[in-house]
Amino acid sequence: MIRLDERGKQCPLPVIEAKKALETASAGEQVEVIVDNEIAVQNLKKLGDYKGLAFSSQKKGEREYAVVLTAAGNTKTASQETEGQQNSLPEPAAVCCPDGRRKGMVAVISSREMGQGDPALGALLMKGFIYALTQQEVLPEAVLLYNGGAFLSCEGSDNLEDLKTLEAQGVEILTCGTCLNHYGLGDKLRAGSVTNMYEIAERMTGAALLIRP
């Protein structure tokens, strides 16, 4: 049996690493994946369903789940094995599921720091807030970044991976283009896409709920 400890790793890493292990496993060999949340279990089940693999899971503790996938000699789905088919369907990208976005909920971030006071503490709090956002059962529909918040979605940001996690779950990450240009970040954007103040105003005025850390 191949054992993977994926606790503490953000989606889609558990799925990606399980997929790699399955590709190297012998037919009938089991791959056990230890994760720390139910969403990761669901994502691994989705992988198993797609590949037509035997799947089982067990909750071993408050934040410990053991998922077992049994490798097969040929893991293609039945639809891909149709006789005479020349081009197999592309495997879907590993994404976090289920869709937990709440329509009309928008997070607005205008600074690299959260709150007033010590800048280092403010940056630490902002990092903690964005990570905590990825762990919520209900996610925002979009995250709007402008002024100092534009730094968060750019190369070198400590928040970049968490923003990518939100993006993988369907959350729109939108960064003000004027702000990127002002701070010389025009070619540094690494998460989401560029937006403008008209769209920012439209999203904010049309939001049912605004979150301002």
UniProtKB/TrEMBL annotation:
PROSITE patterns: UPF0033. It comes from Enterocloster alcoholdehydrogenati. InterPro entries: DsrEFH-like, Se_metab_YedF, TusA-like, TusA-like_sf. This is Sulfurtransferase-like selenium metabolism protein YedF. SUPFAM superfamilies: DsrEFH-like (SSF75169), SirA-like (SSF64307). Residues 4-28 form the UPF0033 domain. The gene is yedF. Transmembrane segments: none annotated.
